[in-house]
Amino acid sequence: KEKQQLKKDNIAAIVHATGTGKSFNALQLALDNKDKKIIYVVPYGSVIEHEKELIEQNENVSLEKDFPNLEFRTYQSFINMSDDEIADLDVDLLILDEFHHIGAPIWGQRINTLVETHEDLQIFGMTAYTVRDRGTAYERDMVNPENDELFSNKVVSNYDLCDAMIEEVLPKPNYKSGYIYLEETCEYLEDKINSLNSNSADYKELEPLLRDLKKRVHEAPGVSDIFKTNIKPNGKYIYFCPLNPENGVNDMDSIMSEARNWIHEMGLTEDDYEFYMTTSDMGIDGKRNREAFYNDKDLNQNDTSNKLRIMFAINQYNEGVHVPGLDGVIMARSTKSDIIFFEQLGRALSAGHDTEKEYEEYNLKSRKELIEECKRRELTYNESMSKEELIEILLAPIIIDLSNNIGFIKELETNLKDRIKEYTSSENNGKINVHLKNASFDIDMINEDLFKILEYVRDRLTITWMDKYELAKAYYEHYGDLEIPIKFKTINGYEYDENGISLGMWISTQKQSFKGQTNNKLDEKQIKLLNQIGMKWFSDNIDVKFQKEEMNEKNINRKKIELYNRFIDYVSKYKNDELPSKDELNSNFIEELDRPLKK
Length: 599
Description:
By secondary structure, this protein is an alpha/beta fold. It is about 45% helix and about 15% strand.
């Protein structure tokens, strides 16, 4: 398909899940076009190392002999090039890895210059995710057919994570979650509570709640218990370190010291494990660490294949690099980005993961022994499972989530189940081969009840203006207005929840602040944001109770409400606070409002 599309339009793209072998597609394309000048663009220098490793490990090809015209570059390498320098590049085929990166203004402009100055250039793009900056004002889908994007209407193959799991190209992971900052967050919130007035309602509710929570947290199982149960003594893992940890510690030594304590509680000594590290500013030292980890060596080239090996990475390994023999990942980086989450998850899922040796070892055990191993690792199984199914559970990669990213994996599980229903329906029969028998994941969170209480206290004390704005935005997108009952509380923006945020009160407070009736003044940016979601600043002065319940009870016509709000906007321009009540607006006046307000 890629070759046909390239021949037709000189441009083609694939959108395939992390771990399904996109790099092999690109290298095969480069091999098939080895007589052409090829530039292969990747996000990071570590990806270039990985691509060269893939070539060198293949006995049938040679980097020098079979890829004589292949040049690797990073997107960043184009930034300091002039338009003339880009125009002078000798290139026939451009390969763009993780092409959503060209959604960045500078990188995108440089790639556009390259395309525009090379008339017959062939372009092949590949990525797992097409959207850049999802959920922000800068969100951009690089294959959106309605926009003039480079790869709009050029995608020849879509194969996401659900598809790969359904066909068992990628395995389901075992997912263990435990929030790493329970005690630190309790201390932080305790300071917040102690700053409150001891006679306030918040203090009286939250202080005893947090006092009881601290006691329970101290007695509860810790992260070391997850390590003891799930980390193999001779396993290989990537530890994704936080960019800005919640406990304020950002140096690698402190993070590694904490991990050492967990490992020693497993009964291992200093001689039983090897630590590696990589960050974007480590240069040649980072490269040495990555190569040693990749090849199961220490920095002195001694064999470490029988040791526990952990790579500590800050903003590395998210994209494009698959480590052979990886048993799982440890997520200590909390993220609101589903893309970053699934990129990290994808490091543990690989179509080329060789488990033959482990399979043979498990196969020598009895079914009873396999069940005991599942119990020891707290993995979900049932008595009716075959020996092969038990081995499959034990071989599944482990994901240890220390930062409560659990919502993403639950969403994936739901999507997977829905996709199977879609593919097994009569309308979609034969669309894809459904090999997966059980779509449920093994998801377990220690201290989940404690975390929920902690989350409630934290939200009550620390929720920001923007957090509440996002709830108001969700309400507006659901109902089409911000006519929110004063007692309305919510946690998702549109459903009432008595334990939620007082969104109705917050909207009322914003209106008061706009009119100068409070000590807090809204800035221009906040006013603009609220205007974008339909804020009616003067509706508090109107003797109408447009509560959602009253709308339903009286079946008020939506058009009348819209017209009435138009009237409010019109009169408000003249600073007239004496606005008529709803009852004073007779049907003739409503009809008059339906015409342009020229009078």
